[in-house]
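The authors assume throughout that readers already know how a fold can be written as discrete tokens. What matters is that the chain and its backbone geometry are given together, residue for residue. A single example would do more here than another paragraph of explanation. For illustration, here is how one protein appears when written out as sequence plus structure tokens.
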Amino acid sequence: MNSALQKVYFHVGISKTGSTFLQKRVFPFLSKIDYVPTNRYQNIFFEIEKIKSKNILISREFDRQFEIEVVKFSNKYPQSTPIIVLRRHDEYFASQYKRFVKNGFTGGLNDFLDLEDDSGFFKKTHFSFKHQINVLKEHFSKKPIVLFYHDLKSNPKKFIADLCFYTNSTINIESVNFSSKHRSYSEKQLKTIKVFSKYFDLRKRRLFNNTLFHLIWRLYLSIFRYSVLYLSFLVPKFLYSREPLIDPDYLTKIKDYFNEDWESCLTYKNVK
């Protein structure tokens, strides 16, 4: 089909906003639209060219690489409609920090996001959702569809219905599995792996160009990481500091700092 006649919807995440749930339990069951799974994103332009149907849905969540990937995709398909799901800044920060600690990050909260000097692992612009919406507006000809994680959590069926409305798709809602995937890792588990990460580099990274060696390395790293996480149950509680992994006062500080940004996003009006 002529690409000019196709409608491409590009779900850009962001991370920790229910992307995995959508990618595994919702997107594959949509009708009247062809979904390209996230594991085929590496060759996404080739994948799109193979599709002959009218509606196409692409999904690949981003965080720090958001702007780079948006520009790359929009250079090829500027007529796409981007979809972004947002989560209140303090909740987003807490979930991202836990995720990165699980994957080998050893720094403190200020090392992760520095609100004063902006010298953290994440920059303040990465937490500016208004900026991200504007990036999507700038690089795509279609207005972004902005959805919210709290709506997905409080009323998932309505969230999915809205998603279908905006993407001209349908779904048998009974086919969606709404059961809990798994509990978050405990404070104890994350504190344990944070200590281990100071002595063993557990960060996800590519050490080998050879695909087979890379897969073996990833398997080894995953086995080691999850062994630490689950063996932490054997460590006595008295060996751990009573200080929380994430200081509630710092979360309040983040919420207050980005409050104007969040309120601006909440007033955003979607159009079909």
Q: What stands out?
A: The chain has a mean pLDDT of 94. The first helix runs from residue 19 to 26. The domain at 3-181+256-266 is CATH 3.40.50.300 (Rossmann fold).
